[in-house]
């Protein structure tokens, strides 16, 4: 993928992988080198994508400064997920088989169903690996409620000034 395939929003580059996962509309939180996006479909309640900005298609191809920022991003992400939905575990999957840019699938794991905003969310793979072939049906309104709940539970200042709308 070349630079002309990147869409710039402020200082952040939205690559094709980020757009595939709904950015910028699906963005929960943005950082200098990373964005956290709501994953659609929702494998489990609160499933997210942690996507690197820019054109890197390999882990080693990332800017070295992104690794330092990653600690903060993951710490805040885990705090928000546990606060919002009380997940039992978290799985981080870096697959990059279909979508080429560096990203993780963040899958919160639940021993039992979770209720949120009138919906019931199951974890079809518990206690084994997440079942990416099974997802919880959501509509745009439910996705917005999940995204806003996570934003409301996110600790600290919003470094990219993302809107909570």
Description of the structure:
The chain has 165 residues and is an alpha+beta fold. It has a single domain (3-153), classed as HIT-like (HIT family, subunit A, 2-Layer Sandwich), CATH 3.30.428. It has helices at residues 16-20, 64-85, 140-153; strands at residues 7-9, 12-14, 27-30, 34-38, 48-52, 89-93, 103-109, 114-116, 119-121. The strands form three sheets. The protein has a five-stranded antiparallel sheet. A two-stranded antiparallel sheet has the order 1-2. Strands 8-9 form a two-stranded antiparallel ribbon.
Q: If you compute it from the alpha carbons, what radius of gyration comes out, rounded to the nearest whole angstrom?
A: 15 Å
- Report the span from N to C terminus: 31 Å
Q: What fold name stands as the CATH topology? A: HIT family, subunit A
Helix fraction bin: 10-25%
The unreliable regions are 1-11
The ordered string of helix (H) and strand (E) elements is EEHEEEHEEEEH
Main sheet attributes: strand count, strand direction, barrel closure: 5 strands, antiparallel
Write the layout of secondary structure elements.
Layout: E1 7-9, E2 12-14, H1 16-20, E3 27-30, E4 34-38, E5 48-52, H2 64-85, E6 89-93, E7 103-109, E8 114-116, E9 119-121, H3 140-153
């Amino acid at each position: 993928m070349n630079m002309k395939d990147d869409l710039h929003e402020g200082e952040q580059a939205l690559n094709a992988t980020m757009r595939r996962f709904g950015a910028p509309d699906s963005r929960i939180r943005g950082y200098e080198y990373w964005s956290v996006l709501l994953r659609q479909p929702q494998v489990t309640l609160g499933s997210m994508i942690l996507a690197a900005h820019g054109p890197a298609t390999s882990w080693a191809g990332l800017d070295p400064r992104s690794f330092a920022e990653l600690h903060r991003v993951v710490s805040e992400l885990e705090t928000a997920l546990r606060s919002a939905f009380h997940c039992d575990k978290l799985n981080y999957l870096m697959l990059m088989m279909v979508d080429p840019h560096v990203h993780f699938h963040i899958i919160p794991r639940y021993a039992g169903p979770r209720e949120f905003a009138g919906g019931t969310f199951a974890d079809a793979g518990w206690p084994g690996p997440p079942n990416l072939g099974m997802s919880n049906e959501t509509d745009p309104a439910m996705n917005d409620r999940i995204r806003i709940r996570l934003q409301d539970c996110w600790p600290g200042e919003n470094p990219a000034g993302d809107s909570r709308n």
